[in-house]
């Protein structure tokens, strides 16, 4: 392949990434409906035609932003929690600990970007709702993997449904951060995340943090 073609391909990819990053930042700060394509193009420093070259509609761009947020969620929270070695209980504790240290007043705006879009878009667009549902199912699957490991290691009730436990646990730590953003109480966030871990059906209660 000629060098010029390779360079052109890299430039196109760079423009697409700039658009996604600009859109992700704007949507995080002011919501999907509060962000226009003109705003995205301006923030990315590209013209409107370049934006439409990569994204035929705002929905297409929204799907790309969801994928970007999904990658951040896995890279910043799920991979560090579940990607390494350790017992299942330790992996779940790592996730609870990461959530217990999420920023409150210092964060740019609105907490979890996937959570924000779920609230804003799930009742408005079916395709976006299903994509967001897919993101959450991927999260629950990874948490459930650690739950199953803890069950196999004899630390969690083997009769409990791992999917149900995963959803309940993650919903608690996600909700803990939501409430902490209104109270600006980091200590309460830490306590609530520890309670979410403790609430799992540990055998003999050995799993208490």
Helix/strand-derived category reads: mainly alpha
User: In CATH, what is the class of the largest domain?
Assistant: Mainly Alpha
CATH-defined architecture of the largest domain: Orthogonal Bundle
Count of structural domains: 2
List the uncertain runs: 1-10
Helical content class: over 70%
Sheet bearing the most strands, described? none
Kindly provide the radius of gyration, computed on alpha-carbon positions and rounded to a whole number of angstroms. 20 Å
Classify the fold: give the CATH topology of the largest domain.
Tetracycline Repressor, domain 2
Mean pLDDT: 89
Shape: elongated
In total, how many beta strands? 0
The H/E string reads: HHHHHHHHH
CATH superfamily of the largest domain: Tetracycline Repressor, domain 2
Amino-to-carboxy terminus distance: 57 Å
In terms of DSSP E residues, the strand content is under 5%
Number of helices: 9
Description:
- The protein has 209 residues and is mainly α.
- It has 2 domains: 1-56, Arc Repressor Mutant, subunit A; 62-205, Tetracycline Repressor, domain 2 (Orthogonal Bundle).
- 73% of the residues lie in helices and 0% in strands.
- It has 9 helices and no strands.
- The chain has helices spanning 3-30, 37-44, 48-54, 58-82, 88-100, 113-121, 126-152, 162-183, 186-198.
- Helix 4 (58-82) packs across helix 5 (88-100), helix 5 (88-100) packs across helix 7 and helix 8 packs antiparallel against helix 9.
- It is elongated.
- The protein starts with a helix and ends in an 11-residue tail after the last helix.
- Residues 1-10 have low confidence and may be disordered.
């Amino acid at each position: 392949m000629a060098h010029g073609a390779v360079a052109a391909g890299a430039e196109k990819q760079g423009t697409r990434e700039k658009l996604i990053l600009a859109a992700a930042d704007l949507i995080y700060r002011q919501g999907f409906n509060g962000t226009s394509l003109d705003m995205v193009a301006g923030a990315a420093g590209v013209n409107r035609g370049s934006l439409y070259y990569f994204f035929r509609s705002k929905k297409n761009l929204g799907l790309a932003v969801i994928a970007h947020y999904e990658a951040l969620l896995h890279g910043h929270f799920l991979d560090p929690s579940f990607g390494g070695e350790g017992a299942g209980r330790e992996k779940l504790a790592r996730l609870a600990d990461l959530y217990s240290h999420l920023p409150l007043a210092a964060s740019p705006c609105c907490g979890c970007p996937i959570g924000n879009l779920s609230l804003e878009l799930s009742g408005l667009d079916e395709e976006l709702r299903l994509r967001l549902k897919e993101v959450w199912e991927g999260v629950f699957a990874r948490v459930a993997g650690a739950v199953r490991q803890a069950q196999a290691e004899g630390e969690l009730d083997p009769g409990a449904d791992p999917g149900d436990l995963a959803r309940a646990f993650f919903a608690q730590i996600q909700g803990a951060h939501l409430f902490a953003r209104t109270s600006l109480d980091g200590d309460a966030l830490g306590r609530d995340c520890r309670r979410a871990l403790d609430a799992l059906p540990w055998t003999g209660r050995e799993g208490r943090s």
